[in-house]
Amino acid sequence: KQEVTQIPAALSVPEGENLVLNCSFTDSAIYNLQWFRQDPGKGLTSLLLIQSSQREQTSGRLNASLDKSSGRSTLYIAASQPGDSATYLCAVLGNQFYFGTGTSLTVIP
Amino acid sequence: GAVVSQHPSRVICKSGTSVKIECRSLDFQATTMFWYRQFPKQSLMLMATSNEGSKATYEQGVEKDKFLINHASLTLSTLTVTSAHPEDSSFYICSASTTAGGTDTQYFGPGTRLTVL
């Protein structure tokens, strides 16, 4: 069964720092991997989608990489801002969706 | 941990029929449930937010008369795709939110793959 793990579970950084969130999965038979942002009481906001044939995707200050063979993905956030504070989830799509447990990010002004 | 189930996991139907998808929180009460869909090669997108006992709030571009959401109890929400067409074929996923323990946490169902012929 697919297992998705996110490290660290929580992260606190000062504003302006670059940071990396990690996501690992046990079964490389996936269609895609997605990174989401979750704000309290709100639905998920999709950040980046990486198809299984792709290696990375970029959107603004965000860059996500995918190494399917090693079962890893990273989300890189450049020049972090207080508004980036949220929980970040990764999810892989195989025969069903599998979500990681999330990384709670706090960016301190 | 908290478990959210969806039924059915996979459904194939003819164009013009209606399909109901159930989302259940098995061991906790969820005041809020979210419905998402993912078209092939696209990101998972929020369709609507459903609070128990009240009308769902739909995202822009989602037809509320086509995607009927009922959140009749704290453990069950249903999504009915009415008069389904092939372009409705998608992966539909729900999540259930709880604030037990002092933090707002969402738990996700495994998804329902809908294919409309």
Account of the protein in words:
The complex is a heterodimer of chains A (109) and B (117). In chain A, strands 2, 4, 5, 9, 10 and 11 form a 6-stranded mixed sheet that branches. In chain A, strands 1-3-8-7-6 form a 5-stranded antiparallel sheet, with no helix packed on it. Helices cover 0% and strands 59% of the residues of chain A. Chain A is mainly β and 109 residues long. Chain A contains no helices and 11 strands. Chain B has 117 residues and is mainly beta. In chain B, strands 2, 4, 5, 6, 9, 10 and 11 form a 7-stranded mixed sheet that branches. The radius of gyration of chain B is 14 Å and the shape is globular. The A-B interface holds A 32, 34, 36, 38, 40-46, 49, 51, 91, 93, 96-97, 99 and B 9, 32, 34, 36, 38, 41-46, 49, 91, 93, 95, 97, 104, 106, 108-111.
Characterize the main sheet of chain B: 7 strands, mixed
Morphology call of chain A:
globular
Unreliable spans of chain B: none
What's the alpha carbon Rg of chain A, rounded to whole Å?
13 Å
Give the integer mean of the pLDDT values of chain B. 91
Element-level helix/strand string of chain A:
EEEEEEEEEEE
- How big a fraction of the residues of chain A is strand? over 45%
Structural class of chain A: mainly beta
Percent of residues in helices of chain B: under 10%
Number of DSSP helical runs of chain B: 0
| Average residue pLDDT of chain A | 94
Approximate strand percentage of chain B: over 45%
Helix- and strand-based class of chain B? Answer: mainly beta
Task: Classify the oligomer.
Answer: heterodimer
Task: Return residue spans of chain A where pLDDT drops below 50 for at least 5 consecutive residues.
Answer: none
SSE string of chain B, helices as H and strands as E:
EEEEEEEEEEE
Give the N-terminus to C-terminus distance of chain A in angstroms: 41 Å
